[in-house]
TrEMBL record:
Organism expressing this protein natively: Candidatus Desulfolinea nitratireducens
UniProt signal peptide: none
UniProt keyword list: FAD, Flavoprotein, Nucleotide-binding, Oxidoreductase, Proline metabolism
Binding site for substrate: K96, R302, R303
Record protein name field: proline dehydrogenase
Entry's cofactor comment: Binds 1 FAD per subunit.
SUPFAM superfamilies: FAD-linked oxidoreductase
Molecular-function annotations in GO: nucleotide binding; proline dehydrogenase activity
Enzyme Commission number, as recorded: 1.5.5.2
Cofactor(s) it depends on: FAD
């Protein structure tokens, strides 16, 4: 119930106006968000790279209202790719298609996505397309497939899959046939019971199943590894802070003899830094999802919904203000 309410608040304009008006809210949110500028995000990437950890940058923003806004958002993503290249850091980018026009017109979105992928191809970098809520799932997969048909390699563009969706296994198996590189996540949107597993135990079980499918797929594809410059990920990116899911992935990789370089763990900026560094020290590939920008409110609220500890951290700061 609480999680559902917080996800509702993440999409409510009136709540955004109230929360972003609290001066202390950004102080709490900055635990999870690497500032508002590209420069601040690149600084965080440098610090992670120094610890042997790679990154993916996400310029926050969703659901642009006009074609002009969508084009500007695409331009900003191009600027991030430029900044990564100039700084020579070990990072790629993650994008949401509603940010570049998916909610307006699919053709507008695809035009912007193609511009972004052309720049990534020039720099030999990687763009991860995030999966949003289910009204956009088919549209997102279609846009991805059209980019492959246009000649873009799976070393340039990849996808994400949410284990709380019933359809996740079928989607994963189908896209693995093309060598798709996946970020496996649990899912952070409010979905109806006919679309997604309502119980955490079922979401976790499906997460483990998808971990196996992705690792088996990686092995069958010859175990492609993280690129030497840290930008292009392997086929499976196991994105979780859940230690049970991480341990399952570790044990299954050992069971099938999948090399450590042929899969990676992805975690969120500001959450479980101890675990991030421990995995990297043990020789696993680790990549941190680094969100930044002024449109931080929806992302922040979804992080509160995911873990009670995050919510209590926020409330304790509220009581101190």
């Amino acid at each position: 119930m609480l999680r559902s309410f917080l996800i509702y608040l993440s999409q409510a304009g009136w709540a955004k106006q109230i929360v972003t008006g609290w001066s202390f809210a950004w102080n709490v949110a900055s635990r999870f968000i690497a500032g508002e500028s590209t420069e601040s995000a690149i600084k965080v990437v440098r610090e992670l790279n120094a610890k042997g950890i790679n990154a993916t940058l996400d310029h926050l923003g969703e659901h642009t209202a006009t074609a002009e806004e969508a084009a500007r958002s695409a331009d900003e993503i191009l600027g991030i790719l430029d900044a990564i290249e100039e700084a020579d850091v070990r990072a790629g980018v993650s994008i949401k298609l509603t940010q570049i026009g998916m909610g307006l017109d699919s053709s507008i979105c695809r035009q912007n996505l193609q511009r972004i992928l052309e720049r990534a191809k020039e720099y030999k970098n990687f763009v991860r397309i995030d999966i949003e809520d289910t009204p956009y799932t088919d549209l997102t997969i279609d846009a991805y497939n059209r980019m492959l048909e246009a000649g873009f390699s799976t070393k340039i563009v990849g996808m994400a899959v949410q284990s709380y969706l019933y359809r996740a296994e079928e989607d994963t198996r189908k896209m693995l046939e093309t060598g798709t590189r996946f970020r496996l996540i649990k899912g952070a949107y409010k979905e109806p019971p006919d679309k997604a597993y309502p119980k955490k135990a079922d979401v976790d079980a499906n997460f483990d199943l998808l971990t196996k499918i992705l690792m088996d797929g990686a092995l069958a594809a010859g175990s492609p590894k993280v690129s030497k410059d840290g930008r292009i990920p392997p086929i499976p990116a196991i994105a979780t802070q859940d230690e049970k899911r991480i341990e399952f992935a570790r044990q299954y990789a050992q069971k099938i003899n999948l090399p450590k370089g042929a899969f990676e763990f992805q975690m969120l900026h500001g959450i479980r830094r101890d675990l991030q560094e421990q995995l990297a020290t043990e020789g696993y590939q680790v990549r941190i999802y680094i969100p930044f920008g002024t449109e931080w409110y929806p992302y922040f609220m979804r992080r509160l919904a995911e873990r009670p500890a995050n919510l209590w951290f926020f409330i304790s700061n509220f009581l101190k203000k």
